[in-house]
Amino acid sequence: AVVSTQSGHYGREKFNELNGVTMIYKEKPFTKLPEIAHRLQNMYYEQFGDDFEFISDSKRIDPESIDPYRAYVQVTYVEPYFEQYEKKYRKDDFEYSYNVDRFYYSTPFTHSGSAHGAVGEQFKRVTVLTTEFSFPYVKNRLQVVDIKERVMTPIEVATEDMTRKNEEFDEVLRTNRDGKVDVKMLQMLIQGAIGTTVNQGPLEIIETFLGENSRKPEVQDDKYIKYRNRLKYQCKTFLNNIKAALNENRNIIGTFQEDYQREMEENLKRFKLAVSPFIFNPQTHAEVKHNLNRSYDPENSLSRTMSYDYGGQS
User: Fold this and answer.
1) In 3D, which of 303, 273, 266 has the Cα closest to residue 288?
2) How far apart are CA 167 and CA 238, in angstroms?
C-alpha cells in the first residue's frame, strides 16, 4: 500500500514561492509517521535554524495569523482516497497503490472547540487532496493542486465507525474460512466488541442515534433518515459478526479458554438484550428477548433477525 504524508509549507519570507504549497510524499512500506516527521524536521531545522517551527497536527493553518518571517511546516499522515465505485475494481494492495492521485486525512472536532466529545457531538472534517500527477511517479513527492473539504455529521461519523468494525470482522472471518485462523486477531475483535469495559462505544452510538430522541420531528430530514437506516443495518450486521466470531472461536479454543468463551457469550447476550429495542421491530424484539432470557444458545440464529427490513423499522 502507499504510505504517504502531507507536508504544508507556510512563511512568506522564508519559503517564497513554496509558501502555502502542499506536497504529498510517497514513503517506503511500513514507514512510521514519527520517522518521517523527524527526518523533515531535521532537514528544515538545518535550513532555517531557530526560525523554524514544526506542526504535527492536522488543524487548519491561517496564513494571516502566523509570523511571515518564520518557517512553518505541517506534516500529516494521509491515505489514498477512492470513491465507492473505485473500490470495486481495486481488489488488492497493488491496485490500491497504482495510479493514485487523491489522498485524504480526517480531523475530528466538536462545536465546543475540543477535538473529541460525546458521539452525538462528534463531527469530522475530511480533507481530500489531489496531486498534479499520479503515484507511482519518477519523484517521491508531488505538489497538491486541489483541496476539497467535507464535514461529516455525528450520525455519519457513527455509521462510518460501525462500518469499519464490520469490515474488520469480515476480514478476519474471511481469512478463517481460507484455513488461516488468526486466533489472536479474532479474540481481539471479540474483546473489543463485547468486552465489559469497551462495548459502551457501540451501545452509546445505538442509544444516541436509534433511540427515541433520534425520532424527533426536527431531526427527521431525508439525509438523517438515510443514515439512521444505514446505521441500523450496520448494527444488525455487527451483532451477526460477533455471533459468527464466537462460533469460530468455540471451534478453535482449547479447554483452558472455555471460561473466556462462556464469559463472552454472556456478554453478547447482555449486549443484544440492551440494543434489541433500538434495532429490531417490536415483534422481533419480543422474540429476541424471549429466546435470550431462556438461555444463551450459540446455534440460535442471529441471521434470521437480520432478514427483517432495515429501511425504517425499529
Assistant:
1) 273
2) 10
Exposure pattern of 270-300 as b/e (b: 16+ CB <10 Å)?
A: ebbeebbbbbbeeebbeebeebbeeebeeee
What sign results for the dihedral spanned by CA atoms 111, 116, 122, 125? positive
pLDDT score of 30:
78
Share of the chain above pLDDT 70, in %: 82
C-alpha cell at 62: 491561517
Dump the DSSP string for 218-261: GG--HHHHHHHHHHHHHHHHHHHHHHHHHHHHHHH--GGGHHHH
Q: Assess contact for 129 and 141: CB atoms under 8 A.
A: no
Q: Which of 123, 101, 103 is nearest to 111 (CA)?
A: 123
* Range 49-53, long-range pairs (CB < 8 A, 24+ positions): 51/14
**CA–CA separation, 206 vs 188, rounded Å?**
22
Largest CA distance in the chain: 74
pLDDT at residue 283, as a whole number? 62
How many Å apart are CA 42 and CA 300, to the nearest integer?
59
Which residue's C-alpha cell is 468486552?
A: 195
The pLDDT value given to residue 292: 60
